[in-house]
From TrEMBL:
Keywords: GTPase activation. Transmembrane segments: none annotated. This is Rho-GAP domain-containing protein. Gene3D superfamilies: Rho GTPase activation protein. Pfam families: RhoGAP (PF00620). GO terms for cellular component: cytoplasm. InterPro entries: Rho-GAP, Rho_GTPase_activation_prot, RhoGAP_dom. GO terms for biological process: signal transduction. Residues 1-74 form the Rho-GAP domain. One of its GO terms (molecular function) is GTPase activator activity.
Amino acid sequence: MFPAELVQEKLNLEQSEWEDIHVITGALKLFFRELPEPLVPYGFFTDILETVSEYRPFLLPTYPPTYLTNYLAN
């Protein structure tokens, strides 16, 4: 899957150092950072932003900027 020069070692996920979820997620983030091209290729970036903006009202509710302060005050 990856060129041999990029593969440095095989990991044993049975070792105790991999029990902490933060270690696993940190390794995963490092893997994604070091990919030669992002997980979502640059060519699709604009299309994805347009698609998300079309469906945003269905994905997350939008609240006015003062919503949280008003909510916490009551």
